[in-house]
Specification:
single chain; mainly beta; 2 domains; 0% helix; elongated
Amino acid sequence: MALHRTETSFEIPRETRLVVRGTNGSIICRRGSGSKVLAAAVREDSPELPHSRFIELHVDTGSEFVVKCRYCCSRVPAAADLELELPGHLDSLLVETLNGSIIVDGPGCPVKAMTCNGFIRCSAPCGPLDLQSRNGRIDTLGLCAVSSISTTLGDIRAEIGSIPVSGASISAVTGAIEVCLPPDASIFVDAATGRGRISAQNLEMNSPEAGHGSIRGAMGPGGPRLFVRTRLGDLVLTSRKPGKD
């Protein structure tokens, strides 16, 4: 089945947030080499749905730029996958979709990403990250700055480079959590699981407190609090170079 592709490009002022809003479809955002945003909507042509080729990318401009996919000459949202190449001067990035996965690769700015059904994967450099999925796995790769990561049905693997001075939280309900911290981190770790197993691997803490299903203690001189919780899954804290399994 052939793919129908609709493309557009536009300039975005510095210190402006970019919002990418989908409905049913995955969203991929990657750092590009140019000064413009390059956006494409991709979907399959279907004989049963001849209107599927009549889609357009719409950009609302103002204090923030909003990219949406809709049917031509209407305000009705269209289901399609969105692919974007980003310039390096974005103030921040917000990505939302109802049903679909989100991939964000090295935008070099704060990122907030939300999906109801799908996984989220973010690669450094980026952050602080605020990532939310109701039904899907979440991964951060590289030395990402992490503020908040949460999923209801899914696992989390977070490679963390730093957290804000206000602290950070990582939480899951049914899934397992693995947190990879740099050896020279200066944070206070507060981690616990309700019914799973918890372990710390190659992690040096000052005066750690380990109880049933919980580990608490300072890395280095201490600092912002990293709050990690899962109700039903296992929890692993590690200290190793990002990207190494």
